Amino acid sequence: MKSTITNRYGTERYIYVVVHNTLCAFMSIYILALLLSLPVYAAENDYQLEIFKSSRELLVKQGDVTIKRFHIALGKGGKGSKQHQGDRKTPLGMYKIMDFKADSKFYFFMQIDYPNLLDAWYGYKNNIITAREFKQIAFAFKKHRQPPQNTALGGYIGIHGLGQTTKERRKIHASFNWTEGCIALNNNEINTLRQYVSIGTRVTIRE
Fold it and tell me: Residue 60: pLDDT above 80?
């Protein structure tokens, strides 16, 4: 037997709100459970990358010690975390290196696992992706695989070089954030960075 409750939203709206809030609460618990079950990827003697958008710096760290420091260019979309495809923002949060592409037009490309679980949660909560897409990203996160790269959240974010280098391109790189959301170094610097990076290297991006 079904019972209905009438309020100022109307019955259908009321039921929708209750179901939506219940689903949000369930997904919050699910995300927390996944995060708590994660293994620790970086030991104290491993290298980690820490990126600061405001100062345009990439640090290679070993524990609390900074080993290398690089000047970088970022997404031309400005401050704040990436929210959807085409916003040209560099994401904020904790990621890891998932793949290398030596044949990139930007010389060498280190892909991170954007969108991560929190990106997916906010994307679902803000109606940018569907519940099915959220589950696909969560499944990839749990299995330590690359998440879907073709949702409305965007994808193919990573660290790369300049590619074919000209005087004008070097000048732009030194002065402006010019990428579509990635983190860029010059070609010599990306060669140096490769010595410290492997699959699974942690990448923390801060404002």
Answer: yes
CATH number for 60: 2.40.440.10
User: Is the whole model's pTM more than 0.90, yes or no?
Assistant: no
Cα–Cα–Cα angle for 118, 122, 128, nearest 5°?
130
Domain that holds residue 68: 42-114+154-206
The answer on pLDDT for 21 being more than 60 is no
Query: CA 129 → CA 15, 29, 53, 134, 186, distances in Å?
Result: 22, 19, 26, 7, 34
30 domain residue, yes or no = no
Mean pLDDT score of the chain: 87
CA dihedral 102, 103, 109, 115 (to 10 degrees): -120
**pLDDT band at residue 204 using 50, 70 and 90 as cut-offs:** very high
The structural domain count of the chain equals 1
